[in-house]
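Work Package 4 report. The design task specified in the project plan requires that, given a folded chain encoded as structure tokens, an amino acid be chosen for each position. We show below one input record used in the internal validation round.
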């Protein structure tokens, strides 16, 4: 029986946008909620701390006491919308990868992940602080994939000289590409086919 081991944030490209206030009854909640609403309505390029303060009914000083920069506020708001992803341990590499990718597809198909992420990525290309935050989030999101792949290598299901980062790229990219570049629906039924296709050629994916 599958069992969850860790709880990790959803991968980049899968910002899970819910139209509700994150964590009500905390001082940060109205600020983060206002930030998300303004991001969704106007895009990241037009977001200002003044606008967030006005929408949340707080002062700019209140915001800056919690988040010293605009970039950190944006990152906190987007992170607050991420659901937790259960890291599987099914006993087989294939089962673990199917479980992880199925969660990815569930996010992409049930949530409006495309409303905010493209604007965030675009802004990160010009803002070093946002770029650093995006890279840190991406590293964290890949950790469950790295752990299940490492277990697969230890069980002899993958070659020891596998390029793990490239392997993860090839797993996640088809679904993110379809959702955010092609703008076509991703399909749960493609998960097993993608995993099987990649595992069939795994001996060629080496560093």
């Amino acid at each position: 029986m599958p069992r969850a081991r860790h709880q990790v944030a959803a991968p980049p490209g899968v910002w899970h946008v819910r139209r509700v206030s994150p964590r009500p009854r905390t001082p940060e909640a109205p600020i983060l909620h206002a930030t998300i609403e303004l991001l969704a309505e106007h895009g990241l390029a037009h977001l200002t701390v003044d606008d967030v303060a006005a929408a949340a009914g707080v002062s700019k000083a209140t915001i800056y006491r919690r988040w010293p920069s605009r970039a950190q506020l944006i990152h906190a708001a987007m992170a607050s919308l991420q659901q937790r992803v259960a890291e599987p341990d099914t006993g087989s590499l294939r089962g673990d990868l199917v479980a992880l990718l199925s969660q990815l597809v569930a996010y992409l198909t049930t949530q409006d992940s495309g409303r905010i992420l493209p604007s965030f990525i675009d802004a990160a290309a010009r803002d070093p602080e946002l770029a650093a935050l995006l890279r840190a989030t991406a590293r964290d999101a890949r950790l469950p994939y790295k752990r299940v792949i490492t277990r697969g290598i230890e069980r002899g299901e993958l070659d020891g000289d596998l390029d793990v980062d490239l392997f993860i790229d090839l797993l996640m990219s088809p679904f993110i590409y379809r959702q955010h570049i092609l703008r076509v629906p991703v399909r749960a039924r493609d998960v097993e086919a993608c995993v099987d296709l990649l595992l069939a050629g795994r001996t060629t994916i080496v560093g």
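The domain at 29-79 is CATH 1.10.10.60 (Arc Repressor Mutant, subunit A). Validation will be extended to a larger panel in the next phase.
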